[in-house]
Amino acid sequence: MSDPNTFEFPVIYETANGAWADDVIRGNPALESAYVAAATKLIARGAVAISANCGFSVRYQAAVAASVKVPVVTSSLLLLPALLRQLPKFAKVAVVTADSTHLREELLGVDDRRERARVVIGGIEGGKLWQNEMKRPPLPTDPADIETDVVACVASLRTAHPEIAAILFECAGFPIVSPVIRHIAKVPVYDITTLCRMTMASIA
Q: Rounded CA gap, 150 and 185, in Å?
């Protein structure tokens, strides 16, 4: 998400003041105004859609969407209800996150208990990416280390839940390994770049 070459369309950036990864992941309500301010600045600079660089930003989705008049897709987690409906009732969706200890149920957008039972969650907390992102400022993480952590998490989830028919990456750092996981798992893998491309395709 931080590399403009990820997308086939121009990208502009603004920082939400104080939005360090640890605060966003743990859910600091004081950050809502910072997200709204950053989105407002992006609109003034010509943005036609708004996204964010952490899946836990879904906490601020409603506030940002209410503050601007363009599509807002703060998190890949917004895809989860749609993915559940695309699959047969016996199939499960695996949500792979940077920190499963803070991915609370209200962030999933799935209220029906039967549907929620079809969602399995795995995290890479304690891994290299998690350790580096928790620092202020965050340190860069070698893609090979991200791949190691994510591959291990996905393998563990699939062993425990062979019904997994799709994988959703919460973390905005995971898209770099999406092609590898698609090749290994042989199921659809969705991430924030999937949602951004879909959003831009609808308006560009």
A: 12
Q: Give pLDDT, residue 3.
A: 87
Closest CA to 29 of 52, 63, 53: 63
CATH number for the domain harbouring residue 119: 3.40.50.1860
Distance CA 109, CA 182 (A): 24
Count how many domains the chain has: 2
Q: Which of 90, 38, 94, 23 is CA-nearest to residue 68?
A: 38
Q: Which domain holds residue 86?
A: 76-191
If one counts every other C-beta atom within 10 angstroms of the C-beta of residue 21, the result is 23
Residues 48 and 103 placed together within one structural domain of the fold? no
Query: What confidence tens digit (pLDDT) does each residue in 88-141 have?
Result: 999 999 999 999 999 999 999 999 999 999 999 999 999 999 999 999 999 999
Do residues 96 and 29 share a domain? Answer: no
